[in-house]
Design brief:
- By secondary structure, this protein is α+β, with helices and mostly antiparallel strands.
- The chain contains six helices and seven strands.
- A four-stranded antiparallel beta sheet has the order 1-2-3-4.
- Strand 1 (about 50-55) and strand 2 form a beta hairpin.
- The chain is globular and about 55 Å long.
- The chain starts with 5 loop residues before the first helix and ends with a helix.
């Protein structure tokens, strides 16, 4: 196999790829240059909205180009979380499991559950479709983990040889603290 076709990429994205196809893809001497673009095309066909997907963050979340000067995190259901430079978890529904009983509900066997005196489980859900988007097991009071702030401009320019139209140094800045400060002022 020299190139991954769209049908095979769709099976991969949908989790329906055969073990033989996975092994054949792994044996490819070199990844074909078109694979990323085929991947984006398959992802784009799987959503009902028109904004261009720039990168997939997880099973349900994408960074998309919206208008001329916006890049936002968007769920496959269409719910928007705002600027991709701000931790999307600030705008998700949150369930915190703090007691041992609550943690035991999520683990089987219960002995595998974290100790409530040391940890809490945070479950993040989409307000639009209720899909579970992430889970964190952290000490109480630990800040929300900002999992990814990709340098999209550099990725597209240097690795994909297709610079983005709105490329700017401003895009690669974590804006979560600024957004959190605004939230504090509204309290």
């Amino acid at each position: 196999m020299e190139q991954v076709d769209k049908g095979l990429m769709k099976k991969l994205v949908d989790g329906k790829i055969s073990d033989n196809d996975v092994m054949e893809m792994r044996r490819m001497v070199k990844k074909d240059h078109k694979r990323f673009w085929t991947y984006l095309e398959v992802l784009q066909e799987g959503v009902s909205w028109d904004e261009n997907i720039l990168m997939r963050l997880n099973d349900h979340l994408y960074i998309v180009s919206k208008g001329n000067n916006e890049r936002v995190v968007k769920c496959d259901c269409g719910h928007e979380y705002g600027d991709f430079r701000v931790n999307w978890k600030l705008n998700a529904d949150l369930r915190v499991r703090e007691t041992q009983e609550q943690m035991d509900e999520a683990y089987f066997p219960a002995i595998a559950a974290p100790e409530a005196s040391w940890m809490e489980i945070r479950e993040y859900f989409c307000p639009g479709c209720t899909a579970q988007l992430a889970v964190e097991i952290v000490p109480p009071g630990y800040p929300m983990i900002f999992e990814a702030l990709p340098d999209l401009d550099r990725f597209y320019r240097e690795y994909m040889s297709r610079p983005l139209n709105d490329e700017s140094i401003e895009w690669f800045q974590n804006k979560t603290a600024e957004e959190t400060a605004k939230l504090k002022m509204n309290i």
